[in-house]
UniProtKB/TrEMBL annotation:
It comes from Nocardia aurea. Residues 348-399 are annotated as: Disordered. The keyword Oxidoreductase does not apply. Gene3D superfamilies: Crotonobetainyl-coa:carnitine coa-transferase, domain 1, formyl-coa transferase, domain 3. Keywords: Transferase. One of its GO terms (molecular function) is transferase activity. Residues 377-393 have a biased composition (Basic and acidic residues). Pfam families: CoA_transf_3. This is CoA transferase. InterPro entries: CoA-transferase_III_domain (IPR050483), CoA-Trfase_fam_III (IPR003673), CoA-Trfase_III_dom3_sf (IPR044855), CoA-Trfase_III_dom_1_sf (IPR023606). The lineage of its organism: Bacteria, Bacillati, Actinomycetota, Actinomycetes, Mycobacteriales. The keyword Magnesium does not apply. Its EC number is 2.8.3.-. It is an enzyme of class 2 (transferase).
């Protein structure tokens, strides 16, 4: 459904951008299913190949709801809408020939291991590439297809530990074990990234007879979504981003009639919170080392005040004070929230009738297809045996460009994490990206590194800004001035894509909404990334990542069951960025085919509601309210963190390993690695249901065993036996992982102000390149002012005048007149 703010630019429904593209889905699990769901909604014909018993997702329910033979689980029905299903028995030669015919006529394959089909030697990525070199083959694996860890067992839980994502942002109470982000969120994010990477590869290989291997590592997607550039931070500033865990204050708090979430991330928000709870005197008590420490110190008084108020009253007051706030969503209440109802976001599954999320972004003209019904097992086998797909004859002998976005010019009006992460991908793959700030209001990530303002050029020293903006050009422009707005309009005329993530009123107040942009450039693609959408009652609410997490269900499943949930404080932003990227790429392909511009409305919360889909689906389909379970999870038993014998690197008692047993064979391997102790020989423990019932007993014994060993010893023993295990890494130690080094995930980036530091790249290795991703460091504030303004025909005298007037500048304006450009 198009937004009310998205004018329809076509008289009839537009052909989807990926129409004509045939995708063979050889994956299983959430990541591959979500990747191909996004491709199907973009117009691709997705043919899901299943073994005779069907994809395991057909029998999956996170709550354990019984699924009758012949029926499908609700999550499968959501993820498989609009796809086709064929069945192949790989023990039968004729079926292998049938699959070869499917591959010969297809354009894309999405592959992950886990079924008899994908694990057949003839259907390995290497063999598919050898027999069908025209195909884009996207693989989704824990560690990637190469490197020393490529064959090591892993689960999403152990990958969160290896990534530093469990320990990274200090999630959880300091007197308890840290907690992972619940809801298998890493699998969903990996699927969204795999979709964007697949579209990228398809765009540059279309019309040729040259395919590509797109090798995605889930570990690397976890690093990008659950940690905040910790390696760059540590190497540039000589200290970790955070050294201890803490609970956010207020965070998720108990009110008189339920839970409410409040954020306090800036000095002004702290001052406003003090006033709201009736303690103005706290504002004048001197400057504490940090807002966090001040809030933690005053937590008893703050929580006491909140406990006496209703949720509605707290939210009304917090909104009036401009304090970020939101309701705490879960599978039972989220579809009833006024904002989601006003935007008519949730829909009814077209086959099975349960409630499910709508699409993660909206476009005008409407570019997306569906949702259609999910296929029954093998429903389309006969059709494809009779009429396998046929590829179009290649119309070009050109070599695909290692930098596929080389011809794309992007105006980047974004700040903080969500928007810049979207445009950063384009910059790393060749686009000219112009990142616009103002001297009065620099990008927020320049301000959150904890660098004292007394340091020379302090605003240039943020490793977080650096990690999100390499390869971009930097322009400062105060578009609250008439001349600033005129120059911004001139820039829009020369750009293919405009991306912004301000609150909706900002561009509308200066007269640069989508109709105005179209008047300047009719074929422009405008990507708007508001927190809650361009309309609805929450339209103007501040949209920090944690508020998005609270209002979508991401928070609900994170934390210990006997405590209030805790905010992930991470995934809300990059998840929004990768979904906006998917939408942007579809819009670029649409413009290539039709010459039309597109408005994309990529609301952060609606991207988050898609990756938390399982909660509302389980409640609607089965009446089951999914609950947080600490570090336990629905797919493995045992699954938990266990404290090790050694202190952590800061001298604390906070060193852990993660263990997750997903199969009975892995349980047998664990028992053997432990020396087959008597407690583990109970026959009840030989099956998953029994292990789940006896999880406390298993935890007791594993805790005792791990408590006498170092993390390295535990990993060596269990991983060598084939048990998924991981050290719970401090995130700045990511660079020490041999697997990441072997894949070149980090690249050293020099900087004119900061020390050289290693920066993360993309979680994909493209066989057609590029071989490196960071062409140049992130821009200094206003570094390219003169170059870009000259390109608009502005003379040197006027540029000097603009500097003197503060319209452009090279230093934050509140520290004096902006410095002159070089």
């Amino acid at each position: 459904m198009a937004s009310k703010h998205a004018p329809d630019t076509s008289a009839s429904r537009t052909e989807p951008p990926l129409s004509g593209v045939v995708v063979i889905d050889l994956s299983t699990g959430i990541a591959g299913a979500y990747c191909t769901k996004l491709l199907a909604e973009g117009g691709a014909k997705v043919v899901k190949v299943e073994p005779p018993e069907g994809d395991p997702l057909r029998q999956w329910s996170a709550s354990g709801a019984g699924i009758a033979d012949g029926d499908d689980g609700a999550l499968f029905a959501f993820l498989s809408g609009t796809k086709d299903s064929v069945v192949a028995d790989v023990t039968v030669a004729d079926d292998l020939d049938f699959l070869a015919a499917l591959l010969a006529g297809a354009d894309v394959v999405v592959w992950s291991s886990g079924t008899s089909v994908s694990d057949h030697p003839r259907l390995s990525p290497t063999e598919i590439r050898r027999e069908h070199p025209h195909l884009v083959v996207t693989t989704i694996t824990p560690f990637g297809l190469d490197g020393p860890w490529r064959d090591r067992p892993a689960t999403e839980f152990t990958l969160q530990a290896w990534s530093g994502g469990i320990m990274g942002l200090g999630r959880g109470a300091p007197d308890r074990a840290p907690v992972h982000v619940g809801g298998r969120i890493g699998e969903w994010f990996a699927g969204a990234y795999a979709s964007a990477a697949t579209i990228t590869s398809r765009m540059r290989t279309a019309g040729t007879d040259i395919g590509e291997l797109v090798d995605l590592a889930i570990l690397e997607t976890q690093i990008l979504s659950l940690t905040y550039f910790p390696v760059s931070f540590h190497e540039a500033l000589g200290r970790p981003f955070r050294t201890q865990r803490r609970l956010s204050v207020p965070g998720v708090a108990s009110a008189a009639d339920g839970m409410v979430a409040l954020g306090c991330g800036t000095a002004q928000q702290w001052f406003d919170l003090c006033a709201m709870v009736g303690h103005d005197e706290w504002i004048d008590e001197g400057i504490a080392p940090s807002i966090t420490e001040r809030a933690t110190e005053k937590a008893p008084e703050i929580n006491g005040w909140l406990a006496e108020q209703t949720v509605a009253d707290i939210r009304d007051l917090a909104t009036a004070f401009r304090i970020p706030n939101g309701p705490v969503a879960n599978g039972e209440n989220v579809a009833r929230m006024d904002h989601h109802r006003a935007r008519e976001f949730f829909t009814t599954n077209p086959r099975d009738g349960f409630t499910q999320p709508g699409r993660p972004f909206r476009t005008s003209p409407e570019l997306l297809r569906g949702p259609g019904p999910a296929p029954r097992l093998g429903e389309h086998t006969g059709h494809y045996r009779a009429e396998p797909p046929r590829r179009a004859v290649p119309d070009s002998g050109r070599a695909p460009d290692p930098l596929p976005f080389r011809a794309l010019r992007v105006l980047d009006l974004t700040t903080f994490w969500a928007g810049p992460s979207c445009t950063h991908y384009l910059a790393m793959l060749g686009a000219e990206v112009i990142h616009v700030e103002s001297a009065a209001r620099p990008d927020g990530t320049r301000l959150i590194a904890g660098v004292p303002v007394t340091e020379d050029l302090w605003w240039e020293k943020s490793p977080i800004f650096s990690g999100l903006n390499t390869g971009k050009k930097g322009l400062t422009l105060d578009f609250s001035t008439e001349r600033g707005r005129d120059l911004l309009a001139e820039l829009i005329r020369g750009c293919d894509v405009i991306v912004e993530n301000y609150t909706p009123r900002v561009l509308e107040q200066i007269g640069l909404d989508y109709p105005a942009v179209r008047a300047l450039r009719p074929d422009a693609i405008m990507v708007r990334m508001p927190g809650f959408g361009l309309d609805g009652p929450w339209r103007e609410n501040p949209a920090f990542a944690y508020v998005i997490e609270d209002t979508s269900g991401l928070t609900w499943l994170t934390g210990h069951p006997d405590m209030n949930p805790v905010e992930p404080y991470s995934i809300g932003d990059p998840n929004a960025g990768v979904h906006a990227l998917n939408a942007l790429l579809l819009a670029v392909e649409h413009r290539r085919r039709t010459g039309e511009g597109v408005l994309v409305e990529a609301a952060m919360v609606e991207a988050a509601l898609n990756v938390t889909a399982e909660q509302v689906i389980e409640y609607s389909a089965y009446g089951a309210l999914l609950q947080r379970a600490g570090n336990r999870g629905p797919t493995a038993a045992p699954q938990n963190l266990y404290r090790t014998a050694e202190p952590d690197e800061f001298g604390g008692d906070d060193s852990w390993v993660a263990v997750a047993v997903e199969t009975d064979a892995q349980w047998s391997a664990l028992c053997a690695a432990l020396g087959d102790p008597a407690w583990a020989m109970d026959t009840e423990l030989a099956v998953a249901a029994g292990r789940r019932r006896q999880h406390d007993l298993i935890d007791k014994h594993l805790s005792a065993w791990c408590g006498t060993r170092t993390a390295a010893e535990i990993v060596e023993t269990l991983w060598g036996a084939g048990v998924p295990v991981a050290e719970v890494m401090q995130p700045h130690r990511q660079v020490e992982l041999a697997q990441l080094e072997s894949r070149g995930f980090f690249e050293a980036v020099g900087h004119p102000v900061n020390p050289t530091a290693r920066h993360s790249t993309v979680p994909v290795r493209f066989s057609l390149g590029p071989n490196s991703f960071h062409a140049r460091p992130a821009p200094l504030l206003g570094e390219h002012n003169r170059e870009l303004l000259r390109g608009l025909g502005v003379g040197e005298d006027e540029i000097d005048a603009l500097e003197a007037q503060g319209v452009i500048g090279n230093a934050p304006a509140r520290h004096g007149r902006p410095a002159a450009s070089k």
